[in-house]
Amino acid sequence: MGRILDRLFHQRALRHWRRDARQADQTPLSELRGQRNRARQLRAHLDRLLHVAEGRLALPQIGSSFFPKPHGTDWSWRPALWRGPLPVPGISSAPSKSKLGEEVQLFHDCSYSELTLRQLRNTREQDLAPFGLRMDVFKFDGSFLSLVIELPPSASEGMTRQHLLRIDAIIETEKPQEIFARLNIKHGPNTEQLVRELPLGEPGVLVEFDLAYSRLNEKRIERIWLDLIFEAPDMNQVILRDLTFSRHHRAAI
């Protein structure tokens, strides 16, 4: 009986809102204001339900942090943009310092932006990340373009110069694209920077940063972030299907 009553109440509510929507252009303003307030309250709950349902009913599973890790990994992480749906899934004509989610930020010096960022849903069998990031670049009149990924505080907990920080990514491009990965570690007043060039033409990318070659002050690490720097990016589309981080100790010699 409970399910039957739920369906009857749903049909009644549906008819009510259908009638109000149909008559909205003739409804007196005093009454319309109350309808709008009630509709906004209802929409907030509906948007939340759709947001969660679409995520849970799609594959790969939302929130998945599974990915292959090297032996001895003591910390690993996949940014939220690649794990779950964002409230704002995209930005068009993105200005410099635009943020997509809390961890990904775009930087450039174009006088007029013809760049778009959009979160997309991964549905291929080989994809482990639920979501990806697509960047479309049309005319580009700037001198630099980079995506900055802010690592969580847990990345610096227990980090030493005996660690290797590994980046795994799946990258697709319309045409060959030079991409550099620059790891930045702020420790005290100084910032250590390590740069690696990502191999061209390979969808599966792996780079490791050996902290033994840095002058890192292990006791003063405050912040870690990664810059993905794109050289000559105009008239290209770049899709980052996945981006993961892991940390493990370097082999003893």
Description:
The chain is elongated, with a radius of gyration of 23 Å. A hairpin with a 3-residue loop joins strand 3 (99-100) and strand 4 (104-108). The model has no long low-confidence stretch (mean pLDDT 89). The chain is of the alpha+beta class and 253 residues long. Helices cover 20% and strands 38% of the residues.
What would a concise description of this structure say?
This protein is an alpha+beta fold and 253 residues long.
CATH level 1 name of the largest domain: Mainly Beta
Query: What is the percent of helical residues?
Result: 10-25%
Structural class: alpha+beta
Which ranges are low-confidence, i.e. pLDDT below 50, for 5 or more consecutive residues? none
- Sheet having the most strands: 7 strands, antiparallel
Multimeric organization: single chain
Q: Note the gap between the termini.
A: 72 Å
Average pLDDT number? 89
What's the CATH topology label of the largest domain?
Jelly Rolls
Count of DSSP-assigned helices: 2
Structural Rg: 23 Å
Helix-strand pattern: HHEEEEEEEEEEEEE
Please give the number of β-strands.
13
Number of domains: 2
* Proper CATH architecture of the largest domain: Sandwich
Percent range for β-strand residues: 35-45%
Identify the CATH homologous superfamily of the largest domain.
Answer: Galactose-binding domain-like
